[in-house]
Specification:
There is one protein chain. The protein is an alpha/beta fold. It has 18 helices and 13 strands. The strands form 3 sheets. An 8-stranded parallel sheet has the order 12-10-7-6-3-2-1-13. A 3-stranded mixed sheet has the order 8-9-11, with no helix packed on it. A two-stranded antiparallel sheet has the order 4-5. The radius of gyration is 36 Å and the shape is globular.
Length: 448
């Protein structure tokens, strides 16, 4: 309570007290006058002088009561004038739009249980959530699964898509069953990676390499604006694109025509426009795969992927550029790849998705990124062959990731993270930090 409110409250109490005293005195006066009259009638002849004295005393008491009441009213009037002065001198506190939005994000998280908070860090397939073979609809099973595990996001693939009506209904039902805002994501890069366009026989956007070869970065904006528009029309709000990898060594190029250019600066220019075009439609972009498949041996889908002797300085001048450009363009997400980059880990051989040196040290601190960090799919061989699902999830979160994408065993990973928070291995404050980033994007997209 403010000091001004306290003063008002005190004055109201004094005013009521003064009025009570005044009215009490008046009641006593009336009672005394009544008694005086009765006594006077009985002994009029013997106590005429006493009656006159009583009347004078009564009149005096009435006068004092009247003065007390007037004093209380005068005090209240002065107090009102003082309040007016306080109002003029102390302007009402206001919130900036940023402060109001931040408070809304914090309030969204404050009402969640620990179990709900932990579930909100996972981005899984509908099959992982419900246990069905192939999810093509959302019914009671989805409703019950989301009540038990209110995950932060669901990612869909070609097998989940049969028709435009079926897809729209499935996503709409899923959202209606969730007690919390949901990310609904898909891989839609254009070219060879176009889940919706392939399943629904839509006109496919050209591969990134062809767009980049045209030399006009505005084409990247137009292409991703087109992708975003049709994704949003079905209910998607996250696209795991664009690819920000740049093939600095064509002999070890695992991205092919999925990247915009072999020239780092050209790729950077096109990535920035792709982010802007996509997010103009209300669909979040996700740059992938940091720190970059620029020069690696191996494929993380089938095994370990390791940089081939690239120094940190070399990567800063090449692989990092498209990511830095996409971050400057305002990307909502960055995906961490399962790339072993010993030069970034002090010589340690560990996937970037589990590395604090890469996620917190470089992406957060050096590149200044404070948006959502999500892992690449954790059911890839580069992770599941070497780490249990719960161990990998805990390592990724401790390293600085905010969301775990497609763990090999979802329930095992969820239970492991929950236990880690309960026993203090991961602090609840750390979980809250990730949820604030997640909900900042979710609520921003809703408002848009």
């Amino acid at each position: 309570m403010s000091s001004r409110s306290e003063r008002r409250k005190s004055r109201r109490i004094r005013r009521v007290r003064s009025q009570i005293i005044s009215y009490s005195v008046l009641l006593v006066v009336l009672a005394a006058m009544t008694v005086g009259c009765v006594v006077g009638i009985r002994a009029a002849r013997d106590a005429l002088q006493d009656r006159e004295a009583a009347r004078e005393a009564s009149m005096q008491a009435a006068l004092e009561a009247s003065r007390a009441l007037e004093s209380a009213q005068a005090e209240e009037a002065v107090a009102d004038l003082l309040d007016l002065g306080d109002t003029q001198q102390e302007p009402t506190q206001t919130y900036t739009p940023e402060e109001a939005f931040r408070e809304m994000v914090e309030e969204s998280i404050a009402g969640m249980t620990l179990e709900q908070k932990v579930a909100g860090l996972f981005f899984v397939t509908p099959e992982q959530l419900t246990g069905v073979g192939t999810a093509i609809q959302a019914g009671d099973g989805t409703r019950e699964a989301l009540a038990k595990y209110p995950v932060g996001g669901l990612v869909y693939f070609k097998q989940n898509i049969q028709s435009q009506e079926q897809l729209s209904q499935m996503l709409s039902n899923t959202v209606s069953y969730s007690a919390f805002p949901l990310f609904l994501g898909v891989d839609e890069e254009g070219g060879q990676v176009a889940r919706l366009a392939d399943a629904l026989h839509l006109e496919t956007v050209k591969p990134a390499a062809q767009i980049g070869a045209a030399g006009d970065a505005q084409e990247a904006y137009a292409a991703y604006e087109s992708i975003g528009n049709y994704l949003a029309s079905y209910g998607f709000n996250v696209n795991f694109a664009p690819v920000a990898d740049v093939a600095v060594n064509p002999e070890h190029d695992v991205m092919g025509d999925r990247s915009f250019s072999t020239d780092p600066q050209t790729a950077a220019d096109f990535v920035a426009k792709a982010v802007q075009g996509l997010q103009a439609t209300g669909v979040s972009a996700c740059l992938k795969h940091f720190p970059g498949h620029g020069d690696v041996t191996g494929d993380s889908h089938t095994g370990a992927a390791v940089t081939t002797g690239r120094s940190k300085e070399e990567m800063q001048g090449a692989e990092f550029l498209p990511f830095a450009s996409g971050i400057a363009a305002g990307t909502d997400m960055v995906m961490i790849g399962h790339i072993n980059a010993p030069a970034l880990n002090g010589g340690e051989n560990i996937p970037a998705s589990l590395s604090e040196a890469v996620i917190t040290g470089i992406l957060r601190n050096e590149l200044g990124y404070d948006g959502i960090v999500i892992t690449d799919a954790m059911n890839m061989t580069a992770i599941k062959e070497y780490y249990e699902a719960d161990v990998a999830a805990i390592m990724a979160l401790k390293a600085g990731a905010d969301m775990i994408l497609m763990p090999d065993q979802f329930e095992q990973a969820y239970t492991g993270v929950l236990q880690a928070v309960q026993d203090g291995t991961i602090s609840e404050e750390r979980v809250n930090d990730s949820l604030k980033r997640i909900y900042s994007v979710k609520l921003k997209n809703r408002a848009g």
